[in-house]
Amino acid sequence: MRQNSVNFYLTLGGLAFLVWAFVYFQTLQHMVMVWSQSETYKHCFFIIPITIYLLYEKRALLKSLDYRPTWLLIAPLLFIQALFVLAQQLNVQLVAHFCAVTSLIIIIWTLVGNHVFKAVAFPIFYLYFAVPFGEEFVPHLQVITADISCQLLIAVGIPVYREGLYLYLPNGTFHVAEACAGIRFLIGTFALGVLLAYLNYQRVWKRVLFSLVCAFVPVIANGIRAFGIMVIGYVTDMQHAVGADHLVYGWFFFLFVLVILFFLGNVANDAQANYSSNGEVGKIEARYSVFLTSVLVLLLPLASSFSASKHSLSKDINVSQLLDSYYQVGEQASFNWMEVDDDTIQPSWTGILNEVPLRLTYRDDSDEQELVSSLHRPFNDDEFSLLKAKELIRRNNDSFEIIKIQNVHGHSKSLLIWYQLENRSVAPALTAKWQQFLNRMSGKRADGYYVVAEIPENLSVDIVLKRLGTLPLPPTETKAAR
């Protein structure tokens, strides 16, 4: 009799999982694509197998527990689904990824009940490490790495002059680039550290403490690694640790740090928890109403009444050629600060408008061409580094960001950055996303330009904005050609 209940319960759970996978299919596809294309998130492929293994280890315990579905999480599930609809309209993939994982966790919790979920809380919550998140911290980590390196160089008596992310030594210059930020090591180490904390410790305070150690140690270790590379370059008169070999040194150092963390994880570790069963078999209570309500709430995004306006461009046209017909093309030497965009991904144009050098990157804001995207790079970070953080300025209903960059020779430039939509100029990214949403809801266009303009030394910001005026978007009856 119980076997029939188990089979029926598993069937209901399987159906709920299939509905969830159907609703979030495109989001899950996007998550896997990010895992595959970014070296930062390769560890995400291991999260699901780890979760399954941890659940398998508790199989005996799970057989002895009582399964009682709960109504308490229907309201949170409804909120997450509404948030998912909003994320879709705004094309905010990070929020959509978060909603996908959170909704799965809520469904599991709802169907198994509080008592069972308490026993499997860590493996289930560990799924959050499958959300590709963290590259947003790279600029901050670059600054921290430069801070640590500079202070350590001063401490050991090596002369150093710092300007932004450039550190000038007597016999060479080092640039703390994005690749030097240590974000991959930080994310991977933290995910591994949280797992080790769960496996090695039973007391909550020990788990929290070790997890915090695994969050801070990689940041400090990366600064020490950068310092070590600079010292090697200094003492060898820049003969070593300035090319590909500094990557090798870095990975050996990171491996050493991991060994230390594994050692610390075994210090004062607690006795392993006993997941064996007491021989009793738990009860299974199948509440069809809870299951049906959960499935209906899951399906809400498909039945959403939002009908966002999407202006499709109907005929093929090369956006770069179209923009060439609008503006004067400038000398390429004037744009050495620019990051070259891949026209196969995002059509872009570089030129001069009324003596103002600028780059326009057009996106139609389809699923494949988000206007507000982390793919945008305002400047070539191989040649320049950020000298002054973003400053937000407002002019009437429009908003813009100003940054200051500098190259290794000490030459600095000020750049003006914004998103040009049909009805206004907007910065920063989150504000632009919200304006796109409002445009869709009101029937306006959501496509536009990502604009980066150089502020010439002899011109003020207001004069630059006046000279640029309103940048016209491609006609709605056209389509960007590849």
TrEMBL record:
EC number annotated for this UniProt entry: 3.4.22.-
GO CC, one annotated term: plasma membrane
Record's keyword annotation contains Repressor: no
Gene Ontology biological-process annotations: proteolysis
Enzyme class: hydrolase
Keywords tagged on the record: Cell membrane, Hydrolase, Membrane, Protease, Transmembrane, Transmembrane helix
UniProt entry tagged with the keyword Transferase: no
Subcellular compartments: Cell membrane
Pfam families assigned to the protein according to its UniProt record, in alphabetical order: Exosortase_EpsH
TM annotation in the entry: 6-28, 68-87, 94-111, 181-201, 208-235, 247-267, 288-308
GO MF term list: peptidase activity
Membrane topology: Multi-pass membrane protein
Principal cellular location given in the protein's record: membrane
Alphabetized InterPro entries for the sequence: EpsH-like (IPR013426), Exo/Archaeosortase_dom (IPR026392), Exosortase (IPR019127), Exosortase-1 (IPR017540)
NCBIfam families linked to this entry: 8TM_EpsH (TIGR02602), exo_archaeo (TIGR04178), exosort_XrtA (TIGR03109)
Identification of the protein by name: Exosortase
Annotated organism of origin: Alteromonas portus
